[in-house]
Amino acid sequence: MSEKLTDLFGSDVFNDATMIERLPKKTYAALKKTIENGEDLDPNVAEVVANAMKDWAIERGATHYTHWFQPMTGITAEKHDSFISPTADGKIMMEFSGKELIKGEPDASSFPSGGLRATFEARGYTAWDCTSPAFLREDAAGVTLCIPTAFCSYTGEALDMKTPLLRSMEALSTQAVRIVKLFGHDVKRVSASVGPEQEYFLVDKAKYLKRDDLIFTGRTLFGTMPPKGQELDDHYFGSIKERVSSFMKELNTELWKMGVTSKTQHNEVAPAQHELAPIYASANIATDHNQLVMESMKKVANRHNLTCLLHEKPFAGVNGSGKHDNWSMVTDTGKNLLEPGKTPHDNVQFLLILAAVLKAVDIHSDLLRVSAANPGNDHRLGANEAPPAIVSVFLGTQLEDVLAQLIETGEAKSSKDGGKLNIGVHTIPELKKDATDRNRTSPFAFTGNKFEFRMVASSMSIATANTVLNTIVADVLSEMADELENASNFDLAVHDLIKKTLTDHQRIVFNGNGYSEEWVEEAAKRGLPNITSMVEAIPALVTDKSVKMFEKHHVFSSVELHSRVEIQYEAYAKAINIEAKTMISMASVKYIPAVISYAKKLADSINAIKSAVPDADVSVQSGLLKEISSLLAKTQVALKKLQDVTAEAAEISDVPEMAKFFKDAVVPAMAELRAPVDALEVKVEKELWPVPTYGDLLFEV
Ligand code: ADP
Ligand code: MG
Q: Which entry of 76, 267, 286, 313 is 20 to 30 Å from 461 by CA?
């Protein structure tokens, strides 16, 4: 790398250092107040910032700016404007006003609004989110100044993922500050810190382009496992192939320039699967950065003749992709509220907050579940793959023991220590062990000083998951603060509250194997919901408890929640419809004709041999011909059925009903069509098979 990494990092970000350098002291101070303390933004400040931002961007080659926002499609949206402004003498000058920085008005009637806006009232606004820094993006389009924004309707309803997230961060801050103050600490803000680990697949682009299913749906709709899958565990943390590492190198550089702290990279469990994790940041920035990570992965892969698949389940039979959302709460004084310290049993504030999280997850596990729901994740959660669809919390031996002491005796007297690790080789240093082992099967695991929510879908924005997490914890903290602020004896009250909360919600704690059948039974006994599909998860958004909670903390209005329900059902129905239509097309114009060709080849062979040597043995050819003809007939029957049910689905006008029909009738019909085609794939001559196979895609990068 020609440039030093320390200089390169954040060089395309209008970050704090740049602002100090380029803004008048007063402007900088005013803007910082807004960013750090959530104070209202003065329009005059915006004017000065806009000008400085423009100069900085233009010096770096920018010609355009865009408000960068996150509509409910789950991906980002942008509309580019150049800085040019005509002058009287027929020339141009470069302009960018405070108004243009603060407010945009994309005519965005084509974004999903769930009934919040009819097309005739198309007005939507984007509003500058100064808590996430503006950045430059460099690609074939040149250099563009990207300004993170929130997106709302003419009537102020959120039409995006960011607005509710920002609202939830405020709610969490307000309530957590109340709690921390009760313990005598002077803090002004508490912010949610998030580190999302992103899993993805890389496949060869030329092969990708031969598969309509990957192109249209992001996943393979047909295909059988090659002789080798992931059973040897030789890919996980394996050495990275050069083509992939050169992709990673360029990706890192791109991300670092934009201020994304790309930190960890490794091969994942499945062949062709990888992971990238940044260093954690405030929930809002982490969410923006995760979008940049996903976008950059796609772009950079393309330049390396690779295609990045972010789908949750690109290949049946091998591990899918998820996003582990690491979450904690940090005060403006730099203290992590989920840090138990060496002796968690006497860290009362930690125990109270831990109890609050357990209660929040127990009461609102249905909301966490829906926050991780998308059509792709239906193949992971509750299918034969981790994590299970049942939300439970893993605490680990140390905290579980503290919890047991508290519940049993009302007091916790000790904390188990991890001890030392003896490897049995003198030259290897003795290591201190963590007090707790890991549990990879838990959907919500305490991992030392943070929780790791492991259900989130790989292709989804992490905004909703964190909006839910922030709000449910804020809600419990607010109840606790109400109770404790009025207590006559705080120490006694907090002690009782911890004990009661832990006792009431201990059913959510599970430290065993989350993948086992026994857990499904045990969870049912405990009354924990097991919601196995997106369609069944969606209603959780608008239960009475959910509406009441979100409204109380001003995160979502009831209208916004209902619109999101509508959007989700619609998104599900559309996704399955596209999958079904893609299958129909692939079966009709690719697989069936290919099998017919092979059948003809066999028949020709039989005829040719018979005419040459009438008593020759052609049992192999005729046996095969019979087998594939029978499978071909089955394919045709299944194809017809899928066509029928897909057509039937299109007739349903009620969106939730339609989504249910897609799940209950279309998805099974898709499986029925896949089965004979997959069986044919291992019988038909490879040269005649019309698309690259799993073997070609997974092992030939
Ligand atoms: P794992 O071993 O779980 O795969 P990784 O190193 O891949 O761990 O990712 C862990 C993620 O958790 C990183 O993004 C890291 O920055 C983040 N993280 C670490 N500490 C915290 C914290 N206190 N709050 C939120 N995220 C954190
Ligand atoms: Mg990891």
A: 267
Closest atom of ligand 1 to 275 CA is: 7
Question: Residue 110 sits in a domain of what CATH number?
Answer: 3.10.20.70
Indicate the top mutation candidate among 197, 339, 453, 456 to test ligand 1's pocket, ranked by most ligand atoms within 8 A of CB.
197
Please name the amino acid found at residue 194: V
Looking up tokens 């049995």 gives 424
The CA distance from 361 to 355, in Å, is 10
Pair 153, 260 in one domain = no
**Nearest bound ligand to the CA of residue 195:** 1
Counting ligands in written order, the one closest to the CA of 329 is: 1
Question: For residue 279, which atom of ligand 1 is closest to its CA?
Answer: 16
Residues 598 and 510 in one domain: no
Three-state secondary structure along 88-147? CCCCEEECCCHHHHHEECCCCCCCCCCCCCCHHHCCEEEEECCCCCCEEEEECCEEEEEE
Residue span of the structural domain in which 612 resides? 572-699
Residue 336 domain flag: no
CA distance 126 to 151: 4
Which of the ligands is closest to the CA of residue 330?
1
The closest residue, in CA terms, to atom 13 on ligand 1 is 195
Cβ contact 701:241 at 8 Å: yes
Q: How many domains does the structure of the chain reveal?
A: 4
Mutate to test the pocket of ligand 1, among 321, 326, 442, 444 (most ligand atoms within 8 A of CB): 326
pLDDT band per the 50, 70, 90 thresholds, residue 155: confident
Residue 361, pLDDT above cutoff 60: yes
Residues with C-beta less than 6 Å from any ligand 1 atom: 193-195, 197, 264, 277-280, 326-328, 336, 449-450
What's the 512 CA to ligand 1 centre distance in angstroms?
A: 22
Lowest mean pLDDT among 51-60, 98-107, 584-593: 98-107
Same domain, 205 and 169: no
Residues 253 and 306 in one domain: yes
Whole-prediction pTM value?
0.95
Q: What is the pLDDT of residue 2?
A: 56
Q: What is the pLDDT of residues 259-291, one digit of tens each?
A: 999 999 998 888 999 999 999 999 999 999 999
Report how far ligand 2's centroid is from the alpha carbon of 197 (Å).
6
pLDDT one-digit tens code per residue, 653-676: 999 999 999 999 999 999 999 999
Which of 521, 556, 591 terminates a domain? The answer is 556
